[in-house]
Design brief:
4 domains; two-stranded antiparallel sheet; mainly alpha; cytoplasm; GCP_N; GCP; Gamma-tubulin complex component; GCP_C_sf
Length: 845
């Protein structure tokens, strides 16, 4: 059955070819011989066409094929034939039913291919006999009439013409070998722009670019034009290589989310570039539409037209290549900032292109900002964000947990905005970790609603700087306020600061006085013999015996005794101190360094109070003796005068020292502590965030340290002051010795004036003291007078030496006050020398 169908098809094709040859107007009137050579060639050509299995490169669309044929006829200047074809196609397409052709586009495609083969044969001067005669051109038959046969001029009758034909064929051969048509160069340029080597234009690694082979003979202008156009391929190769290299390194190396976004944005731009190249490649196959039939049509896409098409892609590709070179070693915020610098351009095309690119590139960065500001989450796997976190303890979270990475801060985010972003996320983490608070989540939602944005991803992007600032400002304002409320209300920050002022800065007078009274005997012992537990019990006694007992139990529980490191010879006074246990989150403010400075201030104030306590004790010893002078009436006048002189010198020196200590203590307690505390309270009320609160406390503590002579610039003055304190304490011991001796002298004098019966009784009462070595009681009147005179003379010399040394030290101390930097220290000079006594007595002052 299949053989019969095949034979039937063969017969139909023979009949078709026979009819076409018989209708050929150029053929003779004689009938066509089916056994002739022409018939055999035509039949073979027909079979070759019909048996071709090549798949068309176009879509099966009859309308598109018809439009292409009509356009070809129009470009060849055959307008009338184009109109005729259009009319015939409309009739052909509208015919349906029995006898109609179903596969219309295939018929049209067949006719188009046959016409194309005919044109190719004509340009190559092929014999018209290889074509179907009905499709041959009249010009071919005219050439036959002029002696052309099978496309070659017969030269048998003209031997001289043979050399001319050979020369022409050689010229054509040289042209084919060495000259390239422009449409071929256009095709190679399009290949080069896709990073592909063409037939003539190839990539040269030595020249680092696409070059046209030197063997190709083209005009110099054409070669320059090809080189300029191929710059686009070189740029494309660089951009494409960067994308491939970055994606090959991921995730083995830290390309980063911003780098991935940059590669994705470049890939999108290359997709648009690919579309343009596809359009240009399609247009390169179409000839130029011409109206005149006399002008030969060329390819539509020439090198000059290609340069016009490449103008805009060249600008974009150059920009992308520059960005690729710039960002090759950058990542994260640094990459976004570098790209942003190229967006400051006056060309609207460049500006819009960079804006579109930056919106894609900065998307991960803005998402990090949103997550950090509203959730406190640092989603930065590849270290691209300008906020850097590090693992620290809870007390160091605020100061050391997070910091700004200046190298990752993009230029479109200002330093002040970056600081607000850092503080907002840090506040959320501080609330979550240190304060164990969850109220910040509602506050963040309110902030996003107030800023007109949402908490979902992708709500911010490049170019929305105002929206970003609004969101950050609203979030910072609300979260900082919530944090301060938690610190002040839940954790009672102000009450703890007041407790430190009252106990560590000795502002609670009754507590300090009672504590000093009960621990004084214990602290007079060597430091290595003192029990910390006993001191803790004495501290508890002092609290219960003063108004401190009414304080919050949580505050009193934090107050403890601390013994500082001590060496051989140290007394309890030198190592005793109080400490305050500041727990989380208050230890963010009261850090170890801050508490060390508080301890330094406490040691200074404690020594000042000790000196004052010593002077008060000396006064208690001295005051009752002013009414006992009548007991010495029986002493010799010289001894009596010496005694009165020694007592007077001791009391004058005490008054001088008491004046200095009282004014110094007044200055410290009121001019330093109270004024600094008042300023601290004022700044605490206006603080808007935790940084402001920390700065206010730091200023408060710094003011106390500087005004109390404990600063770095007042070290010399502080040493002089401590020497004065030691001298005053030494005076207290001398005063105690003096009045102890006077007590013994008084007792011996009173005994000598009693009757004999009372003397024995007094001796029995004072028997213990009389047995002591060096006691005056058991001696006679003469020896008593001699010993009293010697004792008073030695005490007078000691007091004179102390007075002289004290005057010298005080003069040196006062002389240093005017040169101090702090103005309040000059005010201390005014208080100490209010009557200008020291100024008149000391010329150097």
């Amino acid at each position: 059955m299949e053989e019969e169908d095949h034979q039937k098809v063969s017969d139909l094709i023979k009949e078709l070819v026979l009819r076409l040859l018989s209708q050929n107007p150029t053929s003779d009137s004689q009938p066509i011989d089916p056994n002739s050579t022409d018939f055999a060639n035509s039949l073979r050509y027909a079979f070759r066409i019909l048996s071709s299995r090549m798949t068309p490169s176009i879509a099966p669309d009859s309308a598109a094929i018809a439009e292409s044929i009509k356009r070809r006829l129009a470009t060849q200047g055959k307008s009338s034939e184009a109109l005729t074809f259009a009319d015939l196609y409309s009739k052909f397409a509208s015919k349906t039913g029995p006898g109609s052709v179903n596969n219309k586009w295939a018929v049209l495609y067949l006719l188009k291919i046959i016409a194309h083969d005919k044109n190719s044969a004509r340009t190559q001067l092929l014999d018209s006999s290889v074509l179907l005669p009905n499709l041959s051109d009249s010009r071919v038959s005219s050439r036959k009439q002029k002696g052309w046969e099978n496309g070659v001029l017969l030269v048998s009758k003209d031997p001289e013409n043979r050399r001319e034909i050979a020369f022409r064929e050689f010229v054509n051969f040289v042209k084919e070998e060495n000259e390239v048509r422009e449409e071929v160069l256009v095709r190679d340029v399009l290949y080069a722009c896709q990073g592909i080597d063409g037939k003539y234009v190839k990539f040269d690694k030595t020249a680092d670019g696409y070059v046209l082979s030197d063997l190709v003979k083209v005009p110099r202008a054409t070669r320059i034009m090809v080189r300029k156009l191929c710059e686009l391929g070189w740029l494309f190769r660089k951009v494409k290589g960067y994308i491939s290299e970055s994606m090959d390194r991921f995730p083995a190396e830290d390309v980063g989310t911003v780098g991935q976004a940059f590669c994705a944005a470049l890939q999108d731009e290359l997709s648009d570039y690919y579309k343009l190249l596809a359009v240009l490649e399609a247009q390169s196959m179409n000839p130029i539409p011409l109206v005149s039939e006399k002008v030969s049509s060329e390819n539509y896409l020439s090198l000059r037209r290609l340069s016009v098409w490449f103008a805009e892609p060249m600008v974009k590709m150059r920009l992308m290549a520059v960005l690729v070179d710039k960002c090759r070693v950058l990542r994260g915020g640094a990459m976004a900032g570098a790209i942003h610098l190229h967006a400051q351009h006056g060309d609207p095309l460049v500006h819009e292109f960079m804006r579109r690119l930056l919106r894609r590139v900065c998307s991960p960065l803005f998402e990090m900002v949103r997550s950090w500001v509203l959730e406190g989450e640092l989603e930065d796997i590849f270290a691209e964000f300008f906020v850097v976190g590090q693992p620290v303890k809870a007390e160091s979270l605020w100061r050391d947990g997070y910091r700004l990475h200046a190298g990752m801060l993009p230029s479109f985010i200002s330093q002040s905005l970056a600081q607000r972003i850092l503080r907002t996320g840090k506040s959320i983490n501080f609330l979550r970790v240190c304060c164990e608070d969850r109220g910040w989540a509602d506050t963040a939602t309110e902030a996003a609603a107030a800023a007109g944005t949402t908490t979902r991803r992708g709500s911010l992007g490049y170019g929305e700087t105002d929206a970003l600032e609004s969101l950050v400002d609203e979030a910072a304002k609300r979260i900082d306020k919530h944090l301060l409320d938690v610190i002040h209300i839940q954790y009672k920050f102000k009450e703890h600061c007041l407790a430190i002022k009252r106990y560590l800065l000795l502002g609670q007078g009754d507590f300090v006085q009672y504590l000093m009274d009960i621990v004084g005997p214990e602290l007079s012992e060597p430091a290595n013999t003192i029990s910390t537990f006993k001191l803790a019990g004495l501290l508890e006694t002092a609290i219960r015996s003063s108004n401190a007992q009414y304080d919050d139990p949580d505050i009193l529980d934090r107050l403890r005794v601390k013994m500082m490191p001590h060496g051989t010879g140290d007394r309890g006074w030198d190592v005793f101190s109080l400490e305050y246990d500041a727990r989380v989150p208050l230890d963010t403010v009261f850090t170890e360094s801050v508490m060390a400075r508080y301890l330094k201030i406490f040691n200074f104030l404690w020594k000042l109070r000790r000196v004052e306590h010593g002077l008060i004790g000396a006064w208690k010893t001295m005051k009752p003796n002013c009414i006992t002078s009548h007991s010495f009436t029986k002493l010799q006048q010289a001894v009596k005068l010496q005694l009165l002189s020694t007592l007077r010198r001791c009391q004058v020196l005490w008054v001088d020292m008491n004046h200095f200590v009282t004014n110094l203590q007044y200055y410290i307690m009121f001019e330093v502590l109270e004024v600094s505390w008042s300023n601290f309270l004022s700044e605490m009320e206006v603080a808007k965030d935790l940084d402001d609160l920390l700065a206010a406390h730091e200023k408060y503590l710094h003011s106390i340290v500087e005004k109390s002579l404990l600063g770095e610039r007042s070290q010399t003055l502080c040493k002089s002051l401590f020497v004065l304190f030691d001298l005053i304490l030494r005076f207290r011991s001398h005063a105690d010795r003096l009045y102890e001796g006077i007590h013994e002298l008084q007792a011996r004098t009173m005994e000598s004036s009693l009757p004999s019966r009372d003397k024995s009784k007094s001796r029995r009462q004072l028997g213990d003291k009389s047995s002591d070595p060096g006691s005056w009681i058991g001696e006679g009147r003469k020896a008593l007078t001699q010993r009293a005179g010697e004792f008073l003379r030695n005490m007078g010399l000691d007091l004179d030496a102390i007075a002289k040394e004290y005057s010298s030290l005080l003069e040196g101390f006062i002389s240093q006050l005017p040169v101090q930097q702090h103005v309040d220290l000059k005010f201390l000079l005014f208080r100490l020398d209010f009557t200008e006594f020291y100024t008149r007595s000391g010329p150097s002052l």
